[in-house]
Amino acid sequence: MYPGVLLSVLDDIASGAYRVEELQRADFVRIRQLCAQYADAYIGFVDAAVLAVVERLNEPRLATLDRRHFGTLRPRHTEALHLLPDA
Fold first, then answer.
1. Which of 13, 35, 40, 47 has the highest count of CB atoms within 10 angstroms of its CB?
2. For the whole model, what pTM was predicted?
3. What's the number of domains the chain is made of?
4. At residue 1, does pLDDT exceed 70?
């Protein structure tokens, strides 16, 4: 991630532009499933946690610059995530 983009996102979070969702106990079960399912893709804990939360919130959109991983992940609640910003 480019430093300027990261700093802008952190500024937006600090100003309240985005809600930061906490992990719930049930999310860890799903994170474990995702890490096992996508072990060959090396998605890691953070990407799996993001997907678990997006699924729990039934959110079809995700703001991310990580199109490589999130473009291949298949959430339970929708055919594919709509990744923002649009390419």
1. 47
2. 0.83
3. 1
4. no
